[in-house]
């Protein structure tokens, strides 16, 4: 272990996604060796002084204890690596040559304890990570020709249909194709509130089904599902090194040959000027005193513990660099869509121009949006799902503006006001934007057909998360490509004062660079549209990454759940880890600085130096393990009732009578199919801009409509 901290043998590679047997603490080889060496040493101290029994017991203790670090030190030496274990090996051999068998046994015993504790820390973290794979059941029930059949996980294939009964664990990722239930995701995302799912909803491996039976179409094999990818990414993340960790290694690696030179100088010069029997032992003591393993372990132990604990709480932190950077964040830039909002937009109103109909507007808009991957596209396509499709082609995206293409053989455009002239719809556009909706205008054959208003629901915990960040001394800025009015409406509900709207992806990246003048910046986005800004920021953070490979790859940190309060929790957790490994670095450095002169001057003997040095290493390891606590990553209850999973299929819809501003204006109250199961009839108009109770937008005159909709006017 000691050599591993200071440039040891390379870790064996393997299939990191495969389930691995958990290692009980009592089976850790280093701890077993330390315990046996301690018993042998104690027996030797009790045996008659100067007897053969005493000598044999001391030799046995030295051999058993040395077995934990001597082989690794010799392997490292053959590869040109000078590790801490080599210093301890030389010191132990030197003590034996000087006839101090008891000293050699004591050194081997104490160093093996440190090795065992390090092995315990790493095994504890790896076990907690591997335990995630045990969340999936060993078998799954698959429908084959309509008949339930039990198969092993390895036999699951993409496209299979799983039957998930009440209380069952979901075997792998998939999409619900039949049935409704509530899924407990707490074991994976750390969120305590079950998620309602129905046809089209995504479910993930390891989550627990509630009271309803559902059929799930498999979208990923057991070896490639979200849980297996999570374990793989975290294990890779543990290999990444932060600046403090690299600092420790930069100091430790040259220190080893430096100490060898210093010990040689002490031994040779002292022997020339004085009694060699005095100075050669002192040179051996110097070797032990300067061993930097505690220094090199200061950061890795804390980082591994912190990353492992965070992953169990639904926060994926990619290694030491991310831990350090996240703990130093002083400003957070939040994207609007998918971060402050749920990224489940729906159409709230269609306003046609004179002579046109809402259906006509929707048909042209859906024909263009059907070829788009923008979050608003799904809402518009779903709203037009009951209408006959219109042929479209040559559709191209104009970044930050909208779409152009050919619909029914005529040139068409869809986009933000300004890209498409609002004309007589200016008043409606302003009204809808003031209500927090995103408005797109549709133009067909050079004529504006109308406007479509789409609104996304703000996360109910958004305002609380922003307040938590402020209490941590973190400033908050909202960055969005949406118009200023819509951005201001969302920001007001989230209590964010600094808003930058109408930004292209390149603008966001440039603004992140500008914001870095105020301190370390974290950018929070969906990991796809915000990729330039995520890459530019000191820390890129992806929201809701359980279903997004791109988000996990693009970001330094991924919040696997949908609770935005995990963001301040993650920052607090990383700050705690930074504090711990900073303490370790300072303690280790001070001990080395104090022991070197005392050892060189003969004030401290070998036994005392070994005891102090190894005690420091034990303290560093125990302190580092504290970073694995989840006190700062609590399970938080939702601010509102049961949430609904992100749908992957069409919405059910109901039509309201056309009233209000604009000829044939219509409100389209689109709710996920089956909301009636939660006590709300399907098709009933609901608030699309939710917020905590104290910041929720009031309903106008008790009309029952969403503020800004035509029925309230």
TrEMBL record:
Keywords in alphabetical order: ATP-binding, Cell membrane, Hydrolase, Membrane, Metal-binding, Nucleotide-binding, Translocase, Transmembrane, Transmembrane helix
Subcellular location: Cell membrane
Record carries keyword Repeat: no
Transmembrane segments annotated in the record for this chain: 31-50, 56-74, 255-273, 279-308, 585-612
Residue ranges occupied by any P-type ATPase A domain in the UniProt entry: 135-235
Any one cellular-component term (Gene Ontology): plasma membrane
Lipid bilayer topology: Multi-pass membrane protein
Keyword Membrane included in the entry's annotation: yes
Protein name: Putative cation-transporting ATPase G
Protein species of origin: Micropruina glycogenica
